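Hey,

Quick one before I head out. I ran the complex with magnesium ion overnight. Inputs first:
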Amino acid sequence: MANGVINVAVLGSTGSIGRSTLDVIAASRGRLRPFGLTANSRLEEALRQAWHVRPRWLVATDPHLARQFAWGDLPPETELLVGDEGVERLVADPEVDIVVAAMVGMAGLRGTWAAVRASKRVALANKEALVAAGPLMMDLARQNGATILPVDSEHSAIFQALQAGNRQQVRRLVLTASGGPFRRHSAEQMAAVTVEQALAHPTWAMGKKITIDSATMMNKALEIIEARWLFDVPADQIAVVVHPQSIVHSMVEFCDGCVMAQLSPPDMKLPIQYALSFPERWTGPALQFDWSHMMELDFYPPDPQRFPALSLGHEAARLGGTAGAVLSAANEAAVALFLEGDLRFTEIVPACRSVLQQHTFEVHPSLEQLLRLDAWARQEVSKWICA
Ligand code: NAD
Ligand code: MG
């Protein structure tokens, strides 16, 4: 850290979390500096961002798209890098203090892995990387003295609530879930859901993949697995409760019955900023409550019949090993097929279950094994394409 300024690399700067991160940096009154940006397909926006924030590095992660793009002028202080090697060079730059991992899906694994290996503080939004490779990633962090701080709002809430006690005193983590757009839908209604309906989330504006994951509640399944590794808590001590207002972002129940919750309006800028400012708190751009209006908070148990993804999440968290990687990869492929109109909404979770059950389970896989299974799971899901 030079002159007290924190250099931030934003992996996935053109996405929903990436753009909010740039807002947080802009509002930090010089405490944070955007040192590097990466983008995959929206290169025009990436170039605009580069002119706006003048980073040291700009990485175009897809070499093919990077070659085709008419770059024109880059800001004089910015150098262009390409591909996974470019991301690895950016995160390992000794001048980078914090890496915000905000790419979507397993494609984020290499950059996140490289940042952890380079002993950085990693502000982790890319939950799929931890779901797939949790034990390996946490070991790598321990070996290299890297810190992984959650950006996911539920995990940020738990991270904050945990500070009220010690780990031996924790009885349960309670993840809240909005329930998505179909929380009141019957099984019949759910079978007829369109892509457009599934993309209309009631409380959060997010990228497409996580929005579909919220509608199936696979997002919560992935979050159970994420919490299992991030906080080293067994799967059966992680509960889910539906809370449609998305005001209580999650809770920690302690052994004496005390429940610590973290509340704030649904705005990712707060958990993003906390992962950057920790252990400090700063004034910032996140939304604040207006206490002059009445506010109701509802909580109720999820329906495991209509949302079968949740039990898959618990199962994969209990199994560990290769289960998270297979579930996450199958889901990514199934969501992509649904978005293309090639798979029905209600087939996403059965496809994932089938692939999870078929795979050859391994308790202590290597990273290479996980990557091979990732490719295999995607292939298996393609057999579900509707005729
Ligand atoms: P998004 O689709 O809006 O953005 C994704 C970003 O990843 C883009 O910058 C894109 O360039 C990059 N990207 C896409 N494919 C890539 C590839 N193959 N290689 C490298 N980079 C690639 O997604 P998002 O909603 O910002 O979500 C990002 C991550 O944060 C996801 O893992 C998601 O689960 C997590 N998350 C998001 C939210 C939210 O509110 N959006 C909340 C919690 C967690
Ligand atoms: Mg979340």
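The pocket of nicotinamide-adenine-dinucleotide (ligand 1) is lined by residues 12-18, 39-40, 42, 61, 102-104, 107, 125-128, 152, 204, 206-208, 210, 268 (CB under 6 Å).

Talk tomorrow,
K.
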